[in-house]
Design goal:
Helix content is 40%, strand content 22%. It is an alpha/beta fold. Helix 1 packs across helix 2 and helix 11 packs across helix 12. It is globular. 43% of the residues are buried.
């Protein structure tokens, strides 16, 4: 039985139980397993009438919703290939991916988006909105309708990479990829939840068009879960309290903001609570290094009985874990949540590896590391410490890009482009991206990511740090947020002596506005578009180096 057949079976078994819900302020819209099967049936009926053929591509361009999930599953159940795209991406970027994937149908989230697409692309294939797609009421036999048969080699999705350093490429994923990775995620989540009898509660806010988000959706539909969908990114804190989840999927920037907000509130509160928190945190970090003090142990024990439970209660009553992926999380943030009693489980992977290569095992977390390779996946280091991967999770190739496929899949291994290191017992750490390497005029190679993490932690008020210096004599940094010059200089004076001479940061430029997807300087899932940043701040960067050499 493949992953889709298993989802359909589970939805039938959960016919009267809510499996998905949308949070709209104080209101909640929920769908049981039976209701979701009904929506899938309606969408399948429409897709057949619209002419979707087996192997045909259907673009899905809409915000997360119960209906998004129904359309997604309906496309695959009809033997089609879903092409999920980010609805808030720029129109030019969307059009490039749509034209590249050449779908026979487009499912749009609303009339406005459809109008803009057709205006910009008069030759676009038929575009349909949910009102049309779900116009046919579910038939009485809807819950018994099965997916069309699929083999392991059948393609089910084309997911476009985020395009941090160039044009996005369509990653083709097949049934075998999903079967394998979903078995692995389910086994690891079983360990986390310890086979609880009640339905596990899961919260989600990231768009389903990203590989990891889509995997979470499919995992929840395979499990005894209730997945709550955020509908307002500006109101996530309240939505989290409404959902009261056991776990949810994060990117590092979200956890770092949560940590910064808690620490800022404690600083402002001052008095005994702030004092106790500082003492407890110092002792926690000391013990993490294998040491301890008697007085510090007392403060830590007191904090565990008093302020840590209060912080956890404000975040939510049911936390089993926070799950984090898309980029390495700084160890300090992972330690912070562990100290509070909320483990952060890191996951490492790429869209090309069906989202996952490694996963933390509950109870065996090492802050700063991303766990061990999942079952059935081999990993090793190649030239320049590049991470190479092979296994059932590795994609068959890029859509319409045979040269890029040959470059990525060589000698039986997928070349990730990520740099890493591995311990003797198989724990992996991600140290950077080969394409992000800065080559100084001295010939030294520098991975910017570790330095960016160090400086971000050292500079009060810093929101983002990008280290630059390719072809230059020394490194500099662009820092966003509320940092000021005096504190930044002081932080560099403390940090630089700890670094080799060629890794020292000699100059910086401060800007208030953070990088974001809206201003074109972050990808949709929060990664730096380093080329766009260098281009946008070309004059400022030139000014940094002219001033330093003067």
């Amino acid at each position: 039985m493949n992953f889709l057949e298993s989802i359909f079976r589970h939805l039938r078994e959960s016919a009267d139980r809510p499996v998905l819900q949308e949070i709209h302020g104080d209101a909640i819209t929920a769908a049981s397993g039976g209701e979701l099967l009904g929506l899938i049936h309606s969408a399948r009926t429409f897709l057949r009438q619209a002419g979707l053929k087996r192997g045909g591509r259907c673009a899905l361009l809409a915000p997360n919703s119960i209906r998004w999930a129904a359309i997604d599953l309906a496309i695959i159940a009809e033997g089609g290939i879903v092409v999920p795209l980010y609805s808030r991406q720029s129109l030019d970027e969307l059009l490039a991916m749509l034209k590249d994937s050449s779908p026979s149908l487009i499912c749009c989230g609303d009339v406005s988006l459809r109008t803009n697409l057709i205006r910009a692309w008069p030759d676009a294939p038929p575009c349909h909105i949910p009102k049309e797609i779900f116009s046919t009421p579910p038939a009485p036999e809807a819950s018994e309708e099965s997916p069309l048969p699929l083999t392991d080699s059948d393609s089910v999705a084309i997911i476009y990479t985020s395009g941090t350093s160039g044009e996005p490429k369509g990653v083709v994923l097949n049934v075998g990829n999903l079967n394998h990775v979903l078995r692995c995620t389910t086994a690891r989540l079983d360990q986390l939840m310890e086979s609880r009898g009640n339905a596990e509660r899961v919260f989600h806010y990231a768009p389903f068009c990203f590989g990891a988000s889509w995997l979470l959706l499919l995992s929840c539909l395979l499990r005894h879960s209730l997945l709550s969908l955020s509908t307002d990114l500006g109101n996530i804190a309240d939505e989290l309290r409404r959902a009261a989840p056991d776990y949810f999927l994060n990117v590092p920037v979200m956890l770092e903001r949560m940590r910064a907000k808690i620490e800022e509130q404690l600083r402002k509160r001052g008095g005994p609570v702030s004092f106790l928190f500082r003492k407890a945190r110092s002792e926690w970090l000391l013990q993490a290094r294998g040491d301890r003090t008697r007085t510090g142990a007392f403060w830590l024990a007191l904090a565990r009985m008093t302020i840590f439970p209060a912080i956890r209660k404000r975040l939510g009553p049911n936390w089993k874990a926070l799950i984090c992926g898309s980029a390495p999380l700084v160890p300090e943030t992972q330690h912070f949540f562990l100290m509070l009693g909320i483990p952060v489980l890191q996951v490492y992977g790429l869209t090309e590896t069906t989202g996952i290569c490694t996963m933390d095992t509950p109870g065996r977390i090492r802050p700063g590391w991303v766990g061990t390779a999942i079952e059935g996946t081999e990993m090793k280091l190649g030239e320049m410490d590049e991470i190479l991967v092979r296994g059932l999770n590795v994609f068959p190739g890029y859509w319409n890009r045979p040269d890029a496929t040959r470059q990525a899949l060589r000698d039986g291994w997928f070349h990730s482009g990520d740099q890493g290191e591995v311990t003797a017992d198989g724990y992996w750490r991600i140290t950077g991206r080969i394409k992000n390497l800065i080559v100084l005029s001295s010939g030294h190679n520098v991975a910017p990511e570790p330095l960016e993490d160090k400086l971000l932690q050292a500079v009060a008020g810093a929101q983002q740090v990008v280290v630059i210096g390719n072809g230059r004599s020394h490194l500099s940094a662009i820092i966003t947020g509320e940092a000021n010059e005096e504190e930044t200089r002081r932080a560099l004076e403390e940090l630089n002596p700890q670094l080799p001479h060629y890794k020292r940061i000699h100059a910086f430029h401060l800007i208030r506005e953070p990088f974001s997807a809206d201003n074109g300087l972050l990808t949709a899932n929060g990664k730096f578009k380093r080329g766009a940043i260098a281009e946008r701040f070309h004059n400022e960067i030139e000014g940094i180096y002219r001033k330093k050499s003067a």
